[in-house]
Amino acid sequence: MTLRFGSLLLAVGILCSVFARAQNDTGTSDNTAPVQPGPKPAFTYPDASPSLDFLNPALENSSITLGIGAGFTYDSNAYSYISSNQDFWLFHVTPSIKIQEFRPHLSWNIYYAPGYQAYTRISGPANSNDNLFSQRASGGFLWQLARRWQLSGSDNFTYSANPFDSFLTTPGTPTMNNPNPLIYSPLSQYTLNYGLLTLTNQLSKVDTLTFTGTANYRNTSTYNLVTSVPFYNLISYGGRVDYSHQFSPRLSLGTGYDFNSLDFGAGQQRSGIQTISITCSYLIRPNMTISGWVGPEYTSTKTVLAIPIPPLSQTFYSSLWSTSLGANFSWQGRRNSVRAGFSRQVSDGGGILATTQVNAVNGDYHRMIIPKMSIVVGARYFHDVSTTVSSRSYSNVYLNASLTYTLAKSLTATGTYGYVHQTQSNTILIGTANYNANIVGASINYTWNHPLGR
Fold it and tell me: How many CA atoms lie within 13 A of 218 on its CB side?
């Protein structure tokens, strides 16, 4: 059998990317930067790149936002791990609510979106997951503790039994803090939770010290084929300390230490990853930036090989020295925007290969055709190699395009196309094979925003 999850990632990106766009009013152009009440982030990490959005959103203020979206997705090869050419149509309805409040020294927000999906198969074997629900919730805050101290935090929770909803975002731009923005989820019920807490001290006008803590939880209750290799189930936590100095309005240099602990399958494999990096950010022009990082990385891994019949187990230890590096480039014009990047770093591998060396290349182009219409085209390549067994690898190529049109002030329509190609090499029980799929989707979204206290 061959496990196929890449098509699910793009299908979910089709359903979810539009919801974010629907939060903004893109009906008219606004050439002035919005002024957001409340505290401002004291420091932006160098790997953060400008948004691809061209039209500035309306002035943010304390408000409640209600939304609802509906649409369909067609996948030409959804369940290829069972057999080939399994065509599926997915229909979805997703209401949402968001509340945000801004105060002079504190801002916070909460978000909740339950979803209902139903899908029909054109070909392929029957599947019990026909009509399914999902839960999605998030929250965050930004608190100005003192004149030079700032605390921010966020948490994102997802529960779903829908295989088309197996990941919340399209494959993103790799960064120092997130080198592998992909997760390959099994076709079963699962839970995700990710938390982030950051404490920032503005030492001076040009010096910043940042402490960051992360926690990540992934779990599925019905693993089926890969129960004996439960690398998707993960508990991880990590911490990072960064120092940055701004030498000029254009150039910033810094250094940092990062530790990340990975625990797959309640002890089936445990890894500790330590990285010392030098970071750099340079403003080439007001609308053009380049940033990057490089440094040594050390990974120590403990793997327990369990054989259920008879009950035997054997423990293996391994270590790896490698180089962590990456760079991101962004340019934004009045109607066009380009973003590109690459990275090489050890991470959790997305859930198939456990501890993995991830090499990634990505690029996006965004053009505003008219104030109410914009297009996005992009490409991403990921090559994952196990740090314990080099013969286990997973390669992914993604091509995507989307067209968004603002029908009214709070009503948007989006059409998307995606192509995925995957190559697997000796992924334990999964074997070696290639996989291709085409994904087409369309959706319409409506939002209603009302200020609080009015």
Answer: 26
% pLDDT > 70, the chain: 69
What is the number of domains present in the chain? 1
CA distance 265 to 15: 30
pTM reported for the whole predicted model: 0.76
Kindly state whether residue 311 falls inside one of the protein's structural domains: yes
- 32 pLDDT tier (thresholds 50, 70, 90): very low
pLDDT 10s digits, 201-236: 999 999 999 999 999 888 876 544 444 445 678 899
Phi first, then psi: what are they for 10, rounded to 5°? -70, -35
Q: Is the peptide bond before 310 cis (omega within 30 degrees of 0)?
A: yes
| Residue 324 is assigned to a structural domain of this protein | yes
Tell me whether residue 424 is in a domain.
yes
pLDDT of 128 above 90 = no
CATH of the domain at 151: 2.40.160
Range of the domain at 300: 6-63+138-451
